[in-house]
Amino acid sequence: MILYFSGSGNSLAIARQLADKLGEQVLSLYDAVDADLQAETRIGLVYPTYWLDAPVAVKQLVAQLVLPKNAYTFIVITCGAQTNNAVWSVRKILEQKDIQLDYCHKIRVPDSSAIAFGRNPNDQAWKFDKYASRIDLIAKEILENRHRLHFSGFDPLGWILNTKKVSQKVYRLTLPAVNPEKCIGCGVCAKVCPQANISLVNDKAVMDDRCTLCLACVHFCAQQAVEVGGKTTIPERQYHHPHVNLKDMVRRG
Q1: Residue 83 has pLDDT above 60, yes or no
Q2: pTM of the model
Q3: What stretch(es) of the chain map to CATH 3.40.50.360?
Q4: Which among 103, 104, 120, 158 has the fewest CB atoms less than 10 Å away?
């Protein structure tokens, strides 16, 4: 079973590709919390790097999972460039459950957070072709039950950036907010938010305080009504994985 967390569809797409090559099924981490996984002989976790670490939601969800202790367990990170502490922090959570991480690797994909810094994630589509062979390599090594921990070391900068005191200030740089003048109350942002952090009040989207910075709301809003740092969201810079659509991203439950 491959468990995933995805905001732009990158991790979902990679999870699907790996599942096809490994003969596995995919399940969102949210659904996995209530799933019976004890019969699984292979458990994979696919998720992105946010702010030099695993997304807060991923760490919270993995902590809630009831996982088989004897399964071959692996992590694949999707990232713009570096993994930093994305493997390390989740590996520590697994160890607290007496679960050994057997394998980890990364796949570079377009950086959906680039939009927050005025860049276009769609300009990074070249990564798909460049790293396609790595997916084959990862699948091959997992099928061979290899024990290799790539990119799993501790990163001091990632740790500092994600301490509560620092993160409260830094996260504001990419914290999405609804522009009420542009919002038409269609509810798309609420549907794609994995954290159920958005609701409609008087036909306008309103955000709560559970944002995990996946930016799905920013990228899927057809009105460009969700903005980061008060900057205008440019349609040409909105991004989602080309093989993942809105229906794929709608939150279940």
Answers
A1: yes
A2: 0.94
A3: 2-161
A4: 120
- The architecture of the domain spanning 169-249 is 2-Layer Sandwich (3.30)
**CA separation, residue 32 to residues 96, 183, 231, 233 (Å):** 18, 33, 36, 33
Burial class of residue 115 in the structure, from the number of CB atoms within 10 Å of its CB (0-12 exposed, 13-18 middle, 19+ buried): buried
* Residue 253 in this model has a pLDDT that exceeds 60: no
- CB atoms under 10 Å from CB of 24, counted, come to 19
* Per-residue model confidence as pLDDT tens digits over 120-176: 999 999 999 999 999 999 999 999 999 999 988 888 877 777 777 777 777 777 889
Stretch 9-27: mean pLDDT, rounded? 98
The CATH number assigned to the domain with range 2-161 reads: 3.40.50.360
Report the interhelical angle of 86-96 vs 56-64 (nearest 10°): 20
Instruction: Look at residues 187, 136, 142, 113 and name the one whose alpha carbon lies nearest to residue 42.
Output: 142
